[in-house]
Amino acid sequence: MTRTISRASSPPRTPAAPTRAPRPNSGPAASLAGRSAEQIFGGLDAQKLRSSMTLFHRAAPEEPVFGQVLAQYFDGQADPATDRLL
Predict the structure, then answer these.
(1) Which of 17, 53, 55, 74 is the most exposed place for a label (fewest CB within 10 A)?
(2) Cα separation of 24 and 8, whole Å?
(3) Contact 59/78 with Cβ under 8 angstroms?
(4) What SS3 class is residue 80?
(5) pLDDT tens, residue order, the chain (86 aa)
(6) What is the CA radius of gyration of the chain?
(7) What pLDDT is attached to residue 47?
(8) How far are the Cα atoms of 13, 14, 21, 41, 85 from residue 79, in angstroms, in the given order?
(9) Measured CA distances, 32 to 23, 29, 45, 71 (Å)
(10) Closest CA to 66 of 30, 38, 41, 12
């Protein structure tokens, strides 16, 4: 898992690449209180959100927004399928 996470959290190795890889815009999703991820995004996209937030949370645990989205929409539970792949 360590090799995969370090690779995911490091910027691409191209001269034109920014010094930091762009982060997904998770802020608006974290602020939609009272609605489930399924209500907001639909079932399949809610699964994708959980998987993405799990990956980003593992790659950048110092960034609170990923854990906040997991806490708000998925009872703080990371996606087990994504964790198995890491």
Answers:
(1) 17
(2) 13
(3) no
(4) helix
(5) 556 666 666 666 665 555 555 555 556 655 666 889 999 999 999 999 999 999 999 999 999 999 999 999 999 999 999 999 99
(6) 14
(7) 97
(8) 29, 31, 23, 17, 10
(9) 19, 6, 15, 13
(10) 30
Q: Give DSSP secondary structure letters for 3-46.
A: HHHHHHHSPPS-TTS-SSPPPP--HHHHT-TTS-HHHHH-HHHH
Block residue for tokens 């399924």:
38
**Which residue do the tokens 């034109």 mark?**
16
Amino acid at 74: F
> Residue type for 27, please?
G
